Amino acid sequence: MRAYRVTSPGRSELVDCPLPTLGSGEVLLRVQAVGLCHSDVFHRQAPPVLRQTLPVTLGHEVVGVVEKAAADVTDWRPGTSAAVYVLVGCGRCSACARGEDNLCRTGYRGIGTHLDGGLADYMAVPAGNLVAADGIDPVLAAPMTDAGMTAYHAVASALGLPRSWDVGLVIGIGGLGHLAVQILAAAKADARLIAVDVDPARLELARRLGATDTVLAGHDTAARVTELVGGREVDAVLDFVGTDGTIELAADLTNRGSAIVVAGLGGGSVPFEAQLATRVSPEVTLRRVSAGSRNDLRHVLDLARAGRLRAETVPYPLEKVDEALAALEAGTVLGRAVITIA
């Protein structure tokens, strides 16, 4: 079969390899679609911090059809459509027992990072990591398994944190941000929802998806937003970029009782200072989220199935993974790049 594998740090290619051998509790999935993420660009560099064992097949936003199951798997039958939950926790702690592998304190392994992922014709998956994906176009379902799940988890986290919820702001209308706009617009239909991005096309997409206001990012973004809302009156900021600049922007726009939820992994930070005059106002809640739970994934798939959440997608065949990753790295993908596998 074909598989797109990281063979050494910085080197990845489409290769021929044997069909996966199933272990106890595993299912063989015939892959139909795989969403691409900025983290895939990072993973193929195989930096030491990830502690990857190479070679490894990339691809963590996976949807496919069950081909066969190990003898001890009884709840997944051949022909069933399934989405893959990306995280594999220790399986022993209370968080894993709740299906919240993202909270596993032992640490989780990632499918497509530490375990072979879905950029292949077939993949072996722990049966417990499958979630029903019937009734959804695989190309639309694939981005839900990480981008949708993480956006949902970020929004759900933000909903309960501020003292009031009149103004929300989303920074970064990319693969995750454009889904968060939809989820937030549905959850807080009466709130003002502001989208911030460097790309006018992404801001136009945000408008179509439910944003009430858009601001093109620049040197005066904070001033323009405060003028728009009449001061530091943003109740919640969801940052899907996570650079110094975006986290500082969130700090400059929020006030007492507000919340900042950071989902982006741009390497940014803001000082946490125990003194009177600080950039982050007192009584502001700052939270960094990571992926989501199995229930988060089920919820976003239900939303997609009902037609209430839809990913903007750009499809590529498996033979053009390198082209898709280059477009993703260049920032020219509107929404989510999705690899289709025939």
Biggest sheet layout: 7 strands, mixed
Question: Span from first to last CA?
Answer: 12 Å
Q: Give the low-pLDDT segments.
A: none
- The helix/strand class is alpha/beta
SSE pattern, N- to C-terminal: EEEHEEEEHEEEHHEHEHEHEHEEHEHE
The share of residues in helices is 25-40%
- The CATH class label of the largest domain is Alpha Beta
- What is the overall number of helices? 10
- The percent range for strand residues is 25-35%
**How many independent structural domains?**
2
The CATH topology of the largest domain comes to: Quinone Oxidoreductase, Chain A, domain 1
CATH architecture of the largest domain: Alpha-Beta Complex
Overall radius of gyration = 20 Å
Number of strands: 18
- The CATH superfamily of the largest domain is identified as Medium-chain alcohol dehydrogenases, catalytic domain
Could you tell me the mean pLDDT?
95
Cofactor: Zn(2+)
Keywords: Metal-binding, Oxidoreductase, Zinc
Domain Enoyl reductase (ER): 7-339
GO molecular function: oxidoreductase activity; zinc ion binding
